[in-house]
Write a structure and sequence with these properties.
The chain is an all-alpha fold. It folds into two domains: 50 residues, Orthogonal Bundle (Arc Repressor Mutant, subunit A), CATH 1.10.10.60; 132 residues, Tetracycline Repressor, domain 2, CATH 1.10.357. It is 68% helix and 0% strand. It is elongated, with a radius of gyration of 21 Å. The termini are far apart.
């Protein structure tokens, strides 16, 4: 009796690539049009047929949720990339600008997201945990580099970021986000200069 084998690896790899292409296309379309973006248009932009889209995502709601989770994963993985290329405080500022982009996208798709049961798969708590972890790594790097205050915890920073949840998506939300982020960064840097000696070195 022969042991049953799974599908060949190239088939799985091809399916994985199609799913990634669909998520990337959905991200662009939902950001551009909103939650009612054409599924046929998303499939076309991804270079696949509508049947392929439905094999991966049986309905619009599952595609919306998967796209949001995809964006969260991208945002969180960006924390390490930014820390490799920018000073920690600048990395945190840029990461918060990307967070604002995600939150605006979430507002535009809020009806579809709210129609789902948050307990299904724990997607809401898992997403929050990922975002909190990314902020924690950025804050820790900033504190270690003495680029931001050490007397504030990650939970304090997350609470201070909550203003980004109230961005006016009908107006110039990017400028509003930049002002809020600038205000937050000023607060995170407050008092740091007092730790620097007259010769530019850190005081004990």
């Amino acid at each position: 009796m022969h042991e049953r084998q799974g599908p060949p690896q190239p088939v799985r790899a091809h399916a994985r690539r199609n799913r990634e292409k669909l998520l990337a296309a959905a991200q662009d379309e939902f950001n551009r049009v909103g939650k009612n973006a054409s599924l046929g248009g998303i499939a076309k932009a991804a270079g696949v047929g509508i049947a392929t889209l439905y094999r991966h995502f049986p309905d619009r709601e599952s595609l919306v949720l998967a796209t949001y989770e995809y964006e969260v994963d991208q945002l969180c993985s960006a924390a390490d990339s930014l820390l490799k290329t920018l000073p920690p405080d600048q990395a945190l500022r840029e990461w918060m600008r990307r967070l604002a982009d995600l939150l605006v996208t979430k507002q535009q798709m809020s009806e579809a997201l709210q129609s789902m049961n948050p307990s299904d798969g724990g997607w809401a708590s898992e997403s929050y945990a990922k975002v909190f972890g990314a902020i924690d790594s950025l804050v820790a790097a900033g504190v270690a580099a003495r680029a931001i205050r050490s007397d504030l915890g990650t939970a304090d920073v997350v609470l201070a970021m909550s203003g980004l949840l109230r961005l006016d998506v009908s107006g110039d939300w990017r400028s509003q986000a930049d002002r809020l982020i600038g205000l937050l960064m000023d607060g995170l840097r407050a008092g740091i200069r007092s730790d620097i000696g007259v010769d530019g070195g850190w005081n004990a």
